[in-house]
Design goal:
The chain has 10 helices and 10 strands. The chain is an alpha+beta fold and about 350 residues long.
Length: about 350
Amino acid sequence: MRCTIVPPHILDHMAREADEPELRELARRSLVISSAQRTERRVLPVAAPSATQDFNPSRTIKDAGHTETLPGKTVRAEGAGPTSDATVNTAYDWLGVVFDFYETAYQRDSIDGAGLPMISTVHYGQNYDNAFWNGEQMVYGDGDGTLFTAFTGPLDVTGHELTHGVTQYTAALEYYGQSGALNESVSDVFGSLIKQYHLGQTADQADWLIGQGLLAKSVHGVALRSMKAPGTAYDDPQLGKDPQPADMAHYVDTYRDNGGVHINSGIPNRAFYLASAAIGGHAWEKAGKIWYQTLTGGKLAATADFAAFAAATVETAGSLYGASGAEASAVRQAWTGVGVHV
């Protein structure tokens, strides 16, 4: 299924409660689009990168021309100069930042680890209120301008969605229940880390928000999600209230949203924040490396639940920094702090 940045519970609420009929209809259409296509989740063999190898991105930006046809017309290719369309230029730049992050932090060559060309399509649909990874490329809507701004704006939206691709090519976490919530959480983790990397922020300087700047000024909220304080990102009559739990005591059992993948991801999100805050420094260097090695190490089951993922991160921390080290202790305590006991 398409992995979208705006969860269906927000669009459901908009479809019922938005002030204007046009916004309610846009929300309904966005829901239809977001669930219309399914993609095959694959784990493909990739070449092992050399730690000293220099990788070069291959970026292409396409324009859907406000249609729902992909991929659209090529409007900027790798190495070409900026266009007159700021949306095109931002999409191009953000692909470059994501590529640089994975290369610099983890010696990963693009999304698949083997130089996969990076494609983004902009101006998808009519005021489409979402962005998504469809198994092959990144797609952005322009937003409705009243509740959501352009989805190319926040860097972490691009980082989040492209990380779904990284997960697809590595652990391939099944998109349902706790493994699906982990899939969403991993994308939030690296979406946030990519933004922190771009801004040069340490863990204590970061806002730990996902989609900050995406909500229009009229909306009562700061972002789509808060990793630091799940459940506090927004509380708005037209969008509803952020339903994310921060611990297992408030885990949400639901059949909707593939078993609550966008809701219960708040629990592993907060665990990562707690681990990063305890370890300190640049979160991508140690906490992020632990999560990345866990995701890509080949030992994680596609159906892993929170407890299995937590145990794997503690084991990875011990392998990287010593079983009795501060890092392993911080990771274990972080999971305990959200009610997942290792």
